[in-house]
Design goal:
GMP Synthetase, Chain A, domain 3, SH3 type barrels, 2 domains, five-stranded antiparallel beta sheet, three-stranded mixed beta sheet, 3 helices, 8 strands
């Protein structure tokens, strides 16, 4: 079985075995890209935040499924975790979960926008940004950004 086929089977298994409607799958990586050969990474989240214990429970279920499937000739490493703040937002649920938080958004045009996420609707986000004009006070301006135009969107951490 190829890495892509295994990835698809893992995604299917996880989606069929979600413990709560609140939980959702963010990403599965199987031995490709930045993920080393023999390593499986499953990123999970929930609308209210996922706990370490919940990740561990998914890891046990998925580990048994993978062992029973016997797809790997050699040992593999399984990591089930939450995406963390530094992981780019990629799904509608992630954007909705982070409404009223500050984001940095990179668009396909190469623009970097920073502001508070006000809403996600009709496949676009509404970001409250500060527009600074020379010699004038900064103004708060809402900017609508279609999701298809977003290269990367990350939550920023503020220590104020």
């Amino acid at each position: 079985m190829t890495s892509l086929e295994i990835k698809d089977q893992i995604e299917k298994f996880v989606l069929e075995n979600l413990d709560s409607e609140d939980h959702f799958l963010v990403k599965v990586s199987v031995g490709s890209g930045k993920v080393k050969e023999g390593r499986i990474q499953v990123l999970m989240d929930s609308d209210s935040g996922i706990t370490i214990d919940e990740c561990a429970a998914y890891s046990r279920k998925l580990g048994k499924f993978l062992d029973d499937a016997d797809w790997f000739e050699n040992a593999y490493t399984l990591e089930v975790a939450s995406p963390g703040l530094d992981f780019p937002l990629s799904s509608e649920r992630q954007f909705r979960k982070n409404i009223n938080r500050k984001l940095i958004v990179e668009t396909k045009e190469g623009k970097l926008l920073e502001g508070k996420l006000l809403e996600f609707a009709q496949e676009q986000i509404l970001l409250e940004t500060e527009e600074k004009k020379k010699g004038k006070k900064a103004q708060i301006v809402p900017v609508a950004i279609p999701v298809q135009d977003i290269v990367k969107a990350k939550v920023t951490v503020s220590f104020k």
